[in-house]
Amino acid sequence: MAYQQQPQIPPAVVQWFRSVDVDGTGTISAIELQQALTNNDWSHFQLNTCYQMITLFDRTYTGQINMYDFHSLTNFLNQWRQVFDANDQDRSGTISEHELHATFGRIGFNLSPNFVRMAMWRYDTLNRRCLTFEGFINCCLMLQSLTRDFQQRDTAKQGSAQIGYDDFMCMAINNLK
Ligand SMILES: [Ca+2]
Fold this sequence. Notes:
Layout: H1 11-20, H2 30-36, H3 47-57, H4 67-87, E1 95-96, H5 97-106, H6 113-123, E2 130-131, H7 133-153, H8 165-175
Antiparallel strand pairs: 1-2
Helix pairs in contact: 2-3, 3-4, 5-6, 6-7
Calcium ion binds next to strand 1.
């Protein structure tokens, strides 16, 4: 097996990691992570989202992330932050339905206004008809995950797929958050 050298971690990320690792175990739990992740209005991410973030980056399957995983997580968040800021055209700190539709198109997902409305309804946790950074990330992750599931079944790449009942149910439950 090839030896994989761990990437260098920027000092700022190391420092941030240490401040988030409140109990000093060298790993970060979802509860610790929740204190570190905020929206534009400084509201904290929901615990459920933090569990999902840990699951995405926990390569050791311990339910906690180490400094290397945390570095990957910060890169991931920075990338989404750039997409969020670039699409928050009125600089409100949130993504409106109109902005969300435009975002979907820009990142390559051609979906109907009806779908955008449903996605907005689903991820607008504050009931303000707009998405926070957290809601936006969750929404985009759903989009990527479901699209990947669909594309695996759309073998002819025609934009349609035949799907059995049980397969559909597995796909759906796998994407419920
Ligand atoms: Ca906005």
